[in-house]
Write a sequence for this structure.
């Protein structure tokens, strides 16, 4: 790609500024997490008076962080696995079959993105409570209820993206296999899924991040024992003074798993998006 | 569940034979007319339970006087027709005018966050679409804000914007001497801008990611040909890049608009359930109305109005910008 000197200059300067904008808060979070408490209570200073890792050991006792961490891990992992499985099926149906209700289904799936979360938060709460009362399946305040909620949140985007992704895989692959006697289900599992791996990984990362970061529903649907990190982290602030160094250390701890996974898989992610539905 | 199981164990060889040789006599779960419905059934079930039934229930609730007094015996709540809607829409009453204020904050907030995120994401994506050393590293760096959990991203800004121990005031007051008294960033009218900054920081990497992926689909030959013809970088951007990104942009901007208009996290994590009025986004406003006054009927009516607004905006947007079936799923 040809670039004039002015264009190259513009690119370098803007990229530099954007990088600074992106990194500066990350620097602050890391730096604050290794400062002693007295440093973060007074005027901000760039250099820590001394470097300490005690915030990283204190966070576990100030708030039951490990408990919240395991709750988040359980809920996010299970909801991701189920959401991706269901999205593979539904996305495959949309991209490969002509059936009555196909357009209605695709539209309904996309339209859920327009629903304000606040609109169905309350009814969902009432429904969960009532299912518990009448059938005895405890959904309110339980892992199960949260898993069902989060997997559904991840579904629309996953279905939509995988449908686009499957459509970019040539049909001839499966047709050849089916002529050779493979059933439609066999074609999905043995032919399409291996080819679609980058798309599936991309969808899984998004589903996991959705569940890991969700705040609004967690604030209503969890109780003490099922509380997730999104709500648990606020407890560092509710005890009068905020211990900012501990809060930042906890923020680092809860962010590390998702950031590492996200960055490790970003190649797949971009490849998944490239061949997926974003393609014109 | 037992219905879904094969009636007799089928070996791989038999299965292959039955579907290839005599497709009409394939077991019911392998018939082309049945398969798509089996495939979408679980997704439909969960969507109904978590999205559609609660949404319908929300619409019904908006027609009832579901308040603190009737909540525990919600089946006894009185039917009030459109009274909740009248209350929400009467812009001269206290409730209606507060909702309108909140709406008038959410519109510029959304436009600013979507616009800035798109511009920054676009500059970063085109800037990184050129080969240079350290490109992969830079790409990871720019994705970090999006990789963080939302609440962590906003908590960082909350700390940076603290009046007495935040880095922003240290730079402004003690280092650049631009202000004498450290300003409050999380109170008063500045709270709006704090919210915009935090949201843009969190969302521009998403725009960057989507645009970067879409850019990979543009063949490099197009740029080479344009360069041979002597087209400037700006000209190449306008004539090749932008048109090629049309459908990606169409979806990206719509999705960013919907997510940010419904944004609850940013004001909630920054301000809790008592946001300063210049930062009173509509989702949080409805949340506070519902939970503070325990008037869920009214809260539901407001949510329905919000959704109707978003449906109308999306429909107009798609109708105006969509050409042919490029947005077809």
């Amino acid at each position: 790609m040809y670039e004039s000197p002015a264009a190259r200059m513009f690119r370098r300067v803007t990229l530099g500024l954007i990088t600074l904008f992106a990194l500066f808060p990350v620097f602050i979070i890391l730096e604050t997490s290794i400062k002693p408490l007295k440093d973060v209570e007074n005027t901000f200073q760039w250099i820590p008076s001394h470097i300490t890792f005690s915030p990283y050991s204190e966070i576990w006792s100030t708030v039951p962080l490990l408990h919240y961490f395991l709750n988040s891990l359980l809920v996010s992992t299970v909801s991701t696995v189920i959401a991706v499985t269901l999205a593979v099926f539904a996305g495959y149906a949309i991209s490969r079959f002509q059936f009555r209700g196909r357009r209605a289904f695709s539209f309904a799936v996309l339209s859920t993105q327009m629903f304000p979360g606040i609109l169905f938060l309350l009814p969902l709460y009432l429904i969960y409570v009532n299912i518990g009362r009448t059938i005895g399946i405890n959904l309110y305040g339980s892992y199960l209820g949260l898993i069902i909620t989060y997997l559904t949140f991840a579904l629309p985007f996953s279905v939509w993206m995988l449908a686009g992704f499957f459509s970019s895989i040539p049909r001839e692959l499966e047709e050849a296999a089916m002529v050779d006697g493979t059933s439609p289900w066999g074609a999905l599992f043995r032919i399409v899924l291996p080819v679609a791996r980058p798309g599936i990984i991309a969808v899984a990362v998004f589903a996991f991040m959705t569940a890991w970061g969700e705040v609004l529903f967690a604030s209503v649907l969890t109780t003490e024992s099922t509380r997730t990190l999104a709500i648990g982290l606020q407890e560092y602030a509710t005890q009068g003074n905020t211990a900012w160094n501990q809060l930042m250390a906890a923020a680092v701890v809860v962010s590390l798993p998702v950031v590492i996974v996200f960055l490790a898989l970003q190649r797949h992610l971009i490849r998944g998006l490239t061949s997926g539905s974003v393609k014109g | 569940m037992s219905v879904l199981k094969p009636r007799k164990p089928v070996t791989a060889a038999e299965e292959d034979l039955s579907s290839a040789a005599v497709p009409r006599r394939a077991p019911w779960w392998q018939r082309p007319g049945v398969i798509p419905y089996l495939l979408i059934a679980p997704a439909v079930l969960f969507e109904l339970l978590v999205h559609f039934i609660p949404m319908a229930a929300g619409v019904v609730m908006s027609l009832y006087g579901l308040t603190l007094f009737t909540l525990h015996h919600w089946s006894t709540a009185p039917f009030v027709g459109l009274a909740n809607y009248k209350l929400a829409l009467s812009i001269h009453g206290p409730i209606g005018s507060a909702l309108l204020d909140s709406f008038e904050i959410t519109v510029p907030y959304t436009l600013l966050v979507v616009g800035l995120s798109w511009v920054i994401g676009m500059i970063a994506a085109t800037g990184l679409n050129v080969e240079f050393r350290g490109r992969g590293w830079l790409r990871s760096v720019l994705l970090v804000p999006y990789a963080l959990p939302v609440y962590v991203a906003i908590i960082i800004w909350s700390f940076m914007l603290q009046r007495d121990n935040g880095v922003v005031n240290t730079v402004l007051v003690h280092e650049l001497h631009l202000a004498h008294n450290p300003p409050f960033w999380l109170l008063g009218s500045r709270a709006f801008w704090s919210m915009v900054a935090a949201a843009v920081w969190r969302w521009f990497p998403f725009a960057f990611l989507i645009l970067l992926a879409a850019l990979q689909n543009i063949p490099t030959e197009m740029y080479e040909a344009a360069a041979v013809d002597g087209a400037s970088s700006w000209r190449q951007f306008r004539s090749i890049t932008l048109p090629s990104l049309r459908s990606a942009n169409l979806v990206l901007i719509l999705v960013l608009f919907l997510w940010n208009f419904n944004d609850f996290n940013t004001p909630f994590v920054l301000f809790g359930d008592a946001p300063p009025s210049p930062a009173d986004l509509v989702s949080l406003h409805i949340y506070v109305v519902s939970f503070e006054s325990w008037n869920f009927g009214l809260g539901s009516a407001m949510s329905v109005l919000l959704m109707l607004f978003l449906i109308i905006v999306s429909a107009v947007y798609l109708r105006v910008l969509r050409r042919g079936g490029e947005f077809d799923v």
User: Anything to note?
Assistant: Chain A touches chain B through 105 residues (CB under 8 Å). The first helix of chain A runs from residue 5 to 32.
